[in-house]
Sequence to fold (540 residues):
Amino acid sequence: MSESLETCEITLPLGRIKGSKCSTLYDDDYFSFECLPYGKPPIGELRFKAPQPADPWTGVLDCTSCASKPVQKGLLTGIIEGSEDCLYLNVYAKKIKSEQPLPVMVYIYGGAFTIGGATREAYGPDYFMSKNIVLVTLNYRVDCLGFLSLKDPSLNVPGNAGLKDQVLALKWIKQYISHFNGDANNITVFGESAGGCSTHYMMCTEKTRGLFHKAIPMSGTLHNYWSNTPPADFAFRLAKHHGYTGENVDSYVLDHLRNLPSHKLINHSLITPEDRRNGMLFPFGPTVEPYESEDCVVPEDPLQMARTAWSNEIPVMLGGVSFEGLFMYPGLKANPTSMDSLLQDLHRFTPYDVRVVNTEEQNLNCAKKLIKLYFGDATPSSELILIFMDYYSYKIFWHGFHRTLNARLAYSKSPTYYYRFDFDSPNFNFYRQKFCGDDIKTGVAHADELSYCFRNLQSWKLESVSDEYRTIQRMVGIWTAFAANSNPNCSEIGHLDWQPAKYQEPQRVLNISNEVTIIDLPEYEKLLVWDSLYKAEDLF
Fold:
């Protein structure tokens, strides 16, 4: 992706590494060190378990190309790819030597805790390398290999191995980033979607206290209902799917799953129609661990964790995109009856976390309130697919961000900057194109802001006068200013004075569109209706 000019070597306490001196799409020089092992290969007896720190090596480790993705099955393609030996990270440094060490930015990818990887194909460092920073991208285990949970304490597989990978990577970065000219006392963690939610988990678990200093959860937080997988028998279901015929006994289930090749293990479809009715998007994700172990990262309800989190002491930037729900288009298009049959099963319009604490009558009233809010007097049907996707923008995404903002305003002593990404390009919003093809040609879809943060396989060199190029400059300017100074105001957004969110005005937001302005969040009035569905003590 970036042109490699020459190699360079660094000595770490773990051993010597060889990286590359590279040049970006826009001719910025930087140093690249990829495929750095931070954990032992999580294979054999270590499958499903918390990661172990990587061993030192002898000789010079070749760090001139990225590691494979973790083993995964594509959500849209169904293609199985990746390696179970996946605990590697990449370090991109603008400068290896400078008077002052550089701010460090650590990116955690999204992908429904099911797909993703720290590759140049998706997360090329080119745009960030216009600034004096060190960027780190990291792999963590996904799907069942990252999130299988068993209740038997003797087996030591309580779940959240993928989150524990992230914790170990952050420990590695804190310990070794100074060797890459990174400032170990100025580290910002950021991530998008499941990566935003992961970032929020990193903010809330005691295991990361002191490992970073700022955070940017993008389009995902642990106040999104999908951030926490309810206890279920997915390990047993997975074993049965792969030929297991025994009883639901954790030790037997684990033996069966450990003996399967990883590429077979990951090939499953376990979500039932009832799971879907309850809003479940994936079977394996973060979960409250069934018992506390030495490595436990989620010991209790995540809402409670957020109230008392150590990160209430650090600055945060938080937000989403203007039409998150476009990401639901492939699923809705493939299953129009889910929209056409809504009136036969109104309860499923009510969020599951509301449904489980309400009476039938209360749930029916909630559903009617939401249907009125979105459809007015129209009859919900697949003809109104855009309205359904608007509803999902709130249900799956914006109401979670809103709850997180309110939690920060209630419990945090540090600033929270609130943003909304609304830049619509006919040809550079790559995720809308991925989800909607040529069917929908406008709108800012879930993950579209990543088109302006990272170079990917579809990117091309833009004219410096284009709105797309200007948006890249703005995104990188805001994100790196926040990382450097705990304050996102920067020359790229002109003379705007973006202030932290205030309890009295939670609706004020930085809107990043063709112009960057401070506005009242357009979604705010609908979000208040969503608030009304919940008991006050359950909101945040």
About this structure: The longest strand covers residues 182-192. The chain has two domains: 1-314, 318-334+383-528.
